[in-house]
Amino acid sequence: MSKTSFLSAFFAMGLVCFSVFAFATEPTEPVVSPVPTKAVAPAPHCQVPCGIYGDEMRFEGMLEDTQTIAKAISQIEEFATGLEAGTAPTAKGMNQMVRWVTTKEAHAQNIQDVMAEYFFAQRIKSDHKDYTAQLATAHKVIVCAMKCKQDASAPTAEALNEAILNFYRAYEGKEPKFHEEEK
């Protein structure tokens, strides 16, 4: 490996590490990106309220997000294993790794948005007999999604999946039966 390609790879890895660090820490000041980005508003169901709710769809969507997070983690681990084995990083490989990190972050954030804007804001009611259990398990989902942002290990995705299923149990009062469990 030439000195130039080594420095390029080292610089790129530094950017990746900075990106991961920046996403994994709570900023004390507003972070301004030098690259203009398009603001994307979360798409929860309306808060009119229209009375049309799709709880099952929300749960299935969060479980699908969790599968994507697990896939991203496995791809990130595969890339890291190659680096540990002494394989020189390629631009394409580093690009893909950054894309997997970004995907993992976006899907974890989507779960947090659904929990906050759909379940906390609209669906969990303080007069429900299982209110405390619903709050505790909903909070666990949000914390597990946060941990998926902070780490790239399979147990974080597994914990998130289990937290969503436990929230379903507390929210619906029954065992979950989703498409993924039929496989």
Automatic annotation (TrEMBL):
Q: Provide the alphabetized UniProt keywords.
A: Signal
What Pfam families does the record point to?
Sod_Ni
Q: Which GO terms describe its molecular function?
A: nickel cation binding; superoxide dismutase activity
- Protein name in the entry: Nickel-containing superoxide dismutase
Q: Signal peptide span per the entry? A: 1-24
Organism, per UniProt? Mariniblastus fucicola
